């Protein structure tokens, strides 16, 4: 019986990550919301297929498509650096259903202070879980650091939302609808660097192109985190920028005046539609395996790498998500 070759490189994604299209295909697969419906049994089966394949053992009758499907199931549920199973709501496949619900509600209930407090707090709690689950590197983060980041980001988001809400009362209602987006953007700028402060302090692992670990770099961590902040803000943009215009028009129509309770489900649906495309496309803006020139690393690390690995001109690292 014909067996699958053991030379397929499943360390790398199936599509060329040097192009935006290749990265987009990769992230459409990674963020597929159907992955959160997979049972533990299916996850363990994918885990077993991938671990065996890495050891050179091919499951009998396995096709190349099945191998790649197993790889993407494996990647959707297990952390790339630590190998541990990730919390369900922290996985990239949970991004669309979770974000569409939270964002839709944030944008429907944005007029009163208790509603702003509640939904910004829910959003930041979810963000904290996602940022912790998708952190780069295998360095553990302490409970203390986790709590500091969470409290700071929530405070930042709520302060931004309430401050802008107060200003928006004096301007057009349409501008008021964009307050949640400004709050989310501000919170991302606070939350992600704080959640990943250990990386900024101690650096993230950098490797050569063959995955040989060369050391830890804080410069690489800064580049990784700033790319993630940009991606996250842009990811939220379509879902938070397009629905306000549509809702502003819809709410003047007779249908929503007769059924005002339909406002939230319509908003959630619109946000969901935007996120299905925005999430993978914004994740694809930067390569997951990011790189930088050796000359941009800290001087002492440059010296160490030049001494131990002469000829290395670029280093690579996982930017996190």
From TrEMBL:
InterPro entries: Mtc. It is found in: Mitochondrion membrane. Signal peptide: none annotated. It comes from the Eukaryota. Pfam families: SFXNs. It catalyses: L-alanine(in) = L-alanine(out); L-cysteine(in) = L-cysteine(out); L-serine(in) = L-serine(out). GO terms for cellular component: mitochondrial inner membrane. The chain crosses the membrane at residues 229-246, 266-286. GO terms for molecular function: monoatomic ion transmembrane transporter activity. One of its GO terms (biological process) is one-carbon metabolic process. It is a multi-pass membrane protein. Keywords: Amino-acid transport, Membrane, Mitochondrion, One-carbon metabolism, Transmembrane, Transmembrane helix, Transport. Belongs to the sideroflexin family. NCBIfam families: mtc. Amino acid transporter importing serine, an essential substrate of the mitochondrial branch of the one-carbon pathway, into mitochondria. Mitochondrial serine is then converted to glycine and formate, which exits to the cytosol where it is used to generate the charged folates that serve as one-carbon donors. May also transport other amino acids including alanine and cysteine. This is Sidoreflexin. It comes from Pygocentrus nattereri (Red-bellied piranha). The gene is SFXN1.
């Amino acid at each position: 019986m014909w067996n699958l070759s053991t030379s397929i490189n499943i360390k790398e994604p199936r599509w060329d990550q040097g192009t935006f299209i290749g990265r987009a295909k990769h992230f459409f697969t990674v963020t597929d919301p159907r992955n959160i419906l997979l049972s533990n049994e299916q996850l363990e089966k994918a885990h077993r297929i991938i671990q065996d394949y890495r050891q050179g053992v091919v499951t009998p009758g396995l096709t190349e498509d099945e191998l790649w499907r197993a790889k993407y199931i494996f990647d959707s549920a297990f952390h790339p650096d630590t190998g541990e199973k990730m919390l369900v709501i922290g996985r990239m496949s949970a991004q669309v259903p979770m974000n569409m619900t939270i964002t839709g509600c944030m944008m429907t209930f944005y007029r009163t202070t208790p509603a702003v407090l509640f939904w910004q707090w829910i959003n930041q709690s979810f963000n904290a879980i996602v940022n912790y689950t998708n952190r780069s590197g295998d360095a553990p983060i302490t409970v203390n650091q986790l709590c500091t980041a969470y409290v700071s980001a929530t405070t930042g988001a709520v302060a931004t939302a309430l401050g802008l809400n107060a200003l928006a009362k004096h301007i057009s209602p349409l501008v008021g609808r964009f307050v949640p987006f400004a709050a989310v953007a501000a919170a991302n700028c606070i939350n992600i660097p704080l959640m990943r402060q250990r990386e900024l302090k101690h650096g993230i692992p950098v490797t050569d192109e063959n995955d040989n670990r060369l050391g830890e770099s804080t410069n690489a961590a800064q580049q990784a985190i700033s790319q993630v902040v940009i991606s996250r803000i842009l990811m939220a943009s379509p879902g938070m920028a397009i629905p306000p215009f549509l809702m502003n028009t819809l709410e003047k129509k007779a249908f929503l005046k007769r059924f005002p309770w339909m406002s939230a489900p319509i908003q959630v649906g619109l946000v969901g539609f935007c996120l299905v495309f925005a999430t993978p496309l914004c994740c694809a803006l930067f390569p997951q395996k990011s790189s930088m020139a050796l000359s941009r690393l800290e001087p002492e690390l440059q010296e160490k790498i030049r001494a131990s690995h002469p000829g290395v001109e670029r280093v690579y690292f996982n930017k996190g998500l």
